[in-house]
């Protein structure tokens, strides 16, 4: 219903922003403290392979799935790009995996890998906005 009532949508958006911004800062700060850049130097090939594989998997998988399901062409063209961004869920799952695998001495490597690749995908997040706008699914921003 918020989509149909602009004043309520603006108010809700501002309320969520004021609540979630400090939560995100704390969450990503805690994850950032676990990054060990010396491990990244030894695992950069894994990070690049992960980024390329994840990107290709999303784009090709979404395109193939939308072709097979006979979806609209905008889904085929832009959904994979729009899904490239990763943030909280991937990092939280990496954090949980790191805790479980700490006994194998790869926990901090998982945190480092996921945090740095998440930072990379956040840097390319304008591609998400481009895809959403090109698909005609974006409205002007609230507020």
Sum up the structure in keywords.
143 residues; mainly alpha; 2 domains; 7 helices
Written account of the structure:
The structure is a single chain. The chain is mostly helical and 143 residues long. The protein folds into 2 domains: 33 residues; 100 residues, no CATH class. The chain contains 7 helices and no strands. The longest helix is centred in the N-terminal third of the chain and has 27 residues. The mean pLDDT is 80.
Q: Regions with pLDDT < 50 over 5+ consecutive residues?
A: none
Q: Mean pLDDT across all residues, rounded?
A: 80
Question: Would you tell me the structural class of the helices and strands?
Answer: mainly alpha
Share of helix, binned:
over 70%
Order of helices and strands: HHHHHHH
> How many strand units?
0
Global shape: flat
> What proportion of the residues form beta strands (DSSP E)?
under 5%
Mind summarizing the main beta sheet? none
What is the terminal separation in angstroms?
Answer: 17 Å
Number of domains: 2
Number of helices: 7
Task: Tell me the Rg in angstroms.
Answer: 18 Å
Layout: helices, strands, pairs:
Blueprint: H1 6-32, H2 37-42, H3 44-68, H4 73-82, H5 88-100, H6 107-123, H7 126-134
Helix pairs in contact: 3-4, 3-6, 4-7, 5-6
């Amino acid at each position: 219903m918020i989509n149909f009532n602009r004043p309520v949508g603006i108010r809700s958006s501002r309320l969520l922003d004021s609540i979630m911004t400090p939560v995100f800062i704390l969450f990503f700060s805690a994850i950032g403290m676990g990054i060990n850049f010396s491990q990244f130097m030894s695992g950069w090939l894994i990070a690049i392979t992960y980024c390329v594989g994840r990107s290709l998997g999303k784009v090709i998988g979404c395109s193939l799935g939308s072709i097979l399901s006979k979806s609209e062409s905008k889904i085929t063209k832009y959904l994979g790009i729009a899904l490239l961004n990763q943030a909280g869920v991937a990092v939280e799952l990496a954090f949980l995996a790191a805790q479980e695998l700490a006994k194998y001495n790869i926990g901090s490597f998982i945190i480092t890998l996921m945090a740095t690749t998440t930072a990379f995908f956040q840097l390319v997040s304008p591609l998400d906005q481009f895809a959403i706008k090109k698909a005609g699914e974006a409205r002007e921003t609230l507020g």
